[in-house]
């Protein structure tokens, strides 16, 4: 006779989690920095996140010899400068947070 596996009730959607921890919805407009479009405009956030992901791909593939490889650190820096400029056009206050000393630092 087979027995059923025990169910972890913490992850059932219609039950409250054990230990009194509940999932809290985060409203982007309640952030301290409510003036930044990154925190208030979902489409801007998605665009910036895609650009940051593209930057992560560039740096993680640097020196691997794959088709995504930029071959040298200087080329990676040039690619980052293009991406950072796009981020600055979308949201300058967020850009100043991630690059407080400018693109070349």
Spatial separation of the terminal alpha carbons: 66 Å
Give a count of the beta strands, DSSP E runs of length 2 or more.
0
Radius of gyration, whole Å: 21 Å
Number of helices: 4
Structural class computed from helices and strand pairing: mainly alpha
Chain-wise SSE layout:
Blueprint (H helix, E strand, L loop, with lengths): L36 H4 L1 H19 L12 H18 L1 H7 L7
Helix pairs in contact: 2-3, 3-4
In short:
The protein has a domain at 35-98. The protein has four helices and no strands.
Structure in words:
With about 100 residues, this protein is mainly alpha-helical. The chain has a domain at about 35-100. It has helices spanning about 35-40, 40-60, 75-90, 90-100. The relative contact order is 0.11.
Q: Features of this protein?
A:
105 residues, flat, 46% helix, mainly alpha, 0% strand
